[in-house]
Amino acid sequence: MAESWWQLSVRTRAASIDALSNFLIERGAPGVVLKKTGVEAFFPASHAGEALRRDVRRFVDAVARLSPGKRKPHLRWRAVRQNNWEHSWKRFIKPRRVGKSFWVTPPWLQPAKFRRRRVITIEPGLAFGTGMHATTRGCMELLERVCERFGNRGFTGLDVGTGSGILAIVMAHLGARQVLALDNDPMALEVAQGNLRVNGIVTRVCLSGTRLGVIRRRFDVVVANLTAETILELAGALEKRVARRGFLVLSGILHTQAGAVVDRFNGRFRVLERKRSREWATLLLQRT
Questions:
Q1: Which of 57, 226, 231, 268 is buried most, with the most CB atoms less than 10 Å from its CB?
Q2: In total, how many domains does the chain have?
Q3: How is the beta sheet containing 38-44 ordered, strand by strand?
Q4: Is 227 helix (H, G, I), strand (E, B) or coil?
């Protein structure tokens, strides 16, 4: 059988294992094994490109700087042959309540009780953003609060680095008239399109591989769940896309990096809320 998977082995400090495993799941690993000395994760070969490897390296180094020690993180990638393990991980994925409004569930399960919550169905393991990670949950919870401000007026939304499309779907559920969802990964766009169809949101979300800097429209709500480094690189383009008195939700930020991100947007934006979940920070800013 052809080699169709890549195995990533990361040897790191015990304090970094939780953050690293969550990050790898959100970046598309359908299988993650936790060990005393690190993490092993599996990625479809089609998804384990240079961009993924670069992002993993950056993340591992950033987490290591938070808890310096004698052991330097070590990464190793190797090709593995496909076998029956690829479906066994499904038993670990469960429906999850997020915020006040949502259940997030894989397509093969449904929540036992809806309790007046909207159900978002996401295929896990193929693109960033399944609702499991603290950064995704933080964005969803702050989007709930932002969207309440618009009442029945509706609003426009921009999702930068949409991944699975979950945050674009959230905005559509919360009253957005139209959402533009950007991603430079063709696989992510394909997966997001499938998730839009499953959730019945196709007509209100436009998926695009267009670069953020090319966009000229302004939006009432802009969300970017990326990394602190990427947010700082895109800061100029992000702030130009936020409408007057509009809102900017930022996540994928280690809490030690939140100050630098806030400082970058200081002057044109004010901080309305800062959420922290373990080592992660999610920011809600409003254009002044």
A1: 231
A2: 2
A3: 31-35, 38-44, 3-11, 74-81
A4: coil
DSSP at 49: S
Max Cα distance, the chain (Å): 58
The pLDDT tens digits for 55-112 are 899 888 888 887 666 567 889 998 876 654 455 556 657 788 888 889 888 888 877 6
The whole-angstrom separation of Cα 144 and Cα 100 is: 8
232: number of Cβ within 10 Å: 18
- Count the residues in the chain: 288
**Please, what sign has the CA dihedral across residues 178, 184, 188, 194?**
positive
Strand 118-121 with 102-105, pairing = parallel
For the purposes of burial, counting CB atoms within 10 Å of the CB of 47, is it exposed (0-12), middle (13-18) or buried (19 or more)?
Answer: buried
Amino acid residing at 195: N
Which CATH number characterizes residue 83's domain? 3.30.70
d(CA 62, CA 260): 14
